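Technical appendix A lists one of the benchmark inputs used to test multi-chain prediction within the project. The record comprises two sequence entries:
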Amino acid sequence: LATDRLRHRRVVRQIDGGGAWENDWFAPPETKLAAQQDLDVIEAALAQLSPRCREAFLLTRLTDLGTEEIARRVGVSARTVREYVMQAVVHCRRSLDAAHAVHPGDMP
Amino acid sequence: MKDAAVSAHSGSADGGLMSEAAAWVARIQSAEATEPDFVQWEEWLAADAAHASAYDAAEEIWALTAQLKPTPWPSRDELAAQAEAEDSKGSASAGGAGSTRGARVSMAIAASLLLGSIASVWFVLHSRADVLETTTAEQRSVRLPDGSRVTLGAETRLIVEQQTDRRVVTLDRGEAYFEVAHEPARPFIVRVNDHEVVAVGTAFNIEAQDDRMTVTVTEGVVDLRTVESSMKTFVPGATIASPLRLAVGDRAAADRMGNRRLTGVAPPAAVTAWRDGRLEYLHESLRTVLSDVNRYTEHKVVVADDVVGTLQFTGTVLLDRVDVWLNALPGTFPVEIVEHDGRRFLQRASVAPVKPESVF
């Protein structure tokens, strides 16, 4: 039931045009290029974070380790891991907004 | 989770909302999310129109970062050097407040594997990837966690990664036969160099040779697509050409230059005969035959002559008698095997007419 709602929300977003780049193998080159530029911005933003913050965030996003396990690996509390993840998302969002503000044409 | 969102309210009004949205994305998108989480999330979304757009903005970041590809870090030594640099900078910004000196040292060692971030993520992923390998003349059949079955030919190396949204197998070298468990939501992808074979539920054979790969479909349908290496780093699955669709009996070859072509319809039984201890060929070049045969013998034979390599072979090689077949070659073709520095070379026979084709 809950996942249905989440799926519904996703579908609506895709129809809206958001997430068109998402795993789209056959996207036109300019779409891929824009997605690539966004990823470059994200990478640069992540590099500015403290090592532990970056670590906690990347382990959260790129592995299926649970919060407790990530906390153990990074050497902080689970609560701090959640804080780190939040900080990372906010920092990436601001960086991406700033990049789009400089090159408004890149806005999806 | 909720407390994290609330405590983040310290910044500016906008920053606070974004922090809150970020906390919700992390909570809702987590595998650990529960039904009450969703209920509270919907209440939060409904509470203020700004919440939904903040959530979408945070979710976009969430989705984007899924495409970051952990890249293999050069070496463990390099990581250690980096860890040392971090330590001298006094990066102990978090954790271990009351720890003893001994514990700190061991933490530093543990941290040496964690610093470098993307590298350490790669380690985590890599440690969960299974490497399947066979030696000369060895064959093995393995059932993968998803229920698919893989049969490895000799001198074959496979790296298996099972992810939540896809099943990825990399064929480093050799030959393998795949019987894929039907699971439409998680495509089964076999990577060979810059090529990918994508299946949903089907069976096919792939052989990786020095300069090309060959795929033969024995059941169902697969797509053969080519991935541009530079794109692959950031956008997994990015393709430079439309996929080539292959159906039962189709056989296609793809080389390192990105060229792909259908090489005709093959009798599926012949292509997978290796699993029953035989290699079967119909008008196949000796060069290709020998690259297969060599995986089944310690006494490898190098084709030393391009003309010899193009001679056509039709017939059967018994895998438990590869050396007998090799020694019989000069009786069938105008060739001879000479030993040089402990290696064996196949070359044109000194005196013999060249027969373009011969049937064993």
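Residues 9 and 15 of chain B are 8 Å apart (CA to CA). Confidence is low (pLDDT under 50) at residues 1-13, 71-80, 89-127, 229-239 of chain B. Comparable benchmark entries are summarised in Table A2.
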